[in-house]
Amino acid sequence: MLELQTEEYLPLIAETELSDDDIILEITELKKKLKDELLILGHHYQHDDIIRFADVTGDSLALAKEAAKITKPYIIFCGVHFMAETADMLTSNSQQVILPDLRAGCSMADMAKDSDIEECWDFLTASTTEKIIPITYINCTASLKAFVGKNSGAICTSSNARKVIEWAFKEGQKLLFFPDQHLGRNTCFEMGVPLSEMVLYDPRKFNGGLTSEQIKKAKVILWYGYCSVHQGFTVSQIENVRKDHPNMKVIVHPECNFEVVRASDLNGSTSYIIDEITKAPSGSEFAVATEINLVNRLAQKFTDKKIISLSPYQCLCTTMYRVRPRWLLSAMRAIALKKPINVIKVSPDITKYSILALDRMMNI
Length: 364
Hints:
Elements: H1 20-33, E1 38-43, H2 48-51, E2 56-58, H3 60-69, E3 74-78, H4 81-90, E4 96-98, H5 107-110, H6 114-127, E5 132-137, H7 142-150, E6 154-156, H8 161-171, E7 174-178, H9 181-190, E8 198-201, H10 212-217, E9 220-223, H11 235-244, E10 249-252, H12 258-263, E11 266-267, H13 270-279, E12 285-289, H14 292-301, E13 306-309, H15 325-336, E14 343-344, H16 348-363
Parallel strand pairs: 1-2, 1-3, 3-4, 5-6, 5-7, 7-9, 8-9, 10-11, 10-12, 12-13
Antiparallel strand pairs: 4-14
Helix pairs in contact: 1-15, 3-4, 7-16
């Protein structure tokens, strides 16, 4: 639930108002001026012109938890909307979380709408007497985190999905996993659940394209959503890498499709990918299937290793790319004037149940 504080004082910085160099210079000066009031968080997928100003970099949950540790009144989250929502829920009422561009959404999160999830839940619970535990990937809106909290479920990340799913199967007989089908399928398969016991619910079809009999037989119901960046990687790309670079390891994110994950050498979360490359000996070679800004940053950092993108094409998260230096500067100017813009505020009721789902995850 995004809310924009509407107090008007200045427009967004026009493309012609300042040069890129002027913008970088002013951000640098304002960051020094606001050092006691402002924390800037930068997601791994942000481009370098944003990361250079981040006080902390990381994945979405790690950044939100960092925000919860500090008492500074302003937090600029250079990421996408669901990340800023999580940060708002974990920080105090006296703090304000700001998204530099309110258009910075997430296509995967947008594939799971409240009304569609509710309709799915009604159909599933009417189709079986077995207990279904809803698990949502953290890449979703705060209202769907609250839905999970209300219905005895939990949130997961790509790092802890297996542990959370193991917990879910102790709590119930079936699992509804949303919004990312690939993380759910890959994780459950690695846990020993055969593909024959997983079904895909597509909200664009009547009853998700499923029958009540299919629901009764299934152990895992996967939502149809996906990450447009990670779904773009292919097995043919892996085959090409193996032909051209026989010593190169292929490491992929579990948001990639089933066939790509099965064909890879290693798969894991963003933090897992970073850790594996960091601890690898000098001379190691990696083809990485994740967002291009992170891949390029790893290649620049570890010059003693050969690191390339698995895909020959630009694997850019376009919604992350909406956070540009000029929008960061607009947000910082507003803070300097004590008139913050693009403030993200989640309602108390949604926060209550979302935190319940987050707490379940943290306790697993």
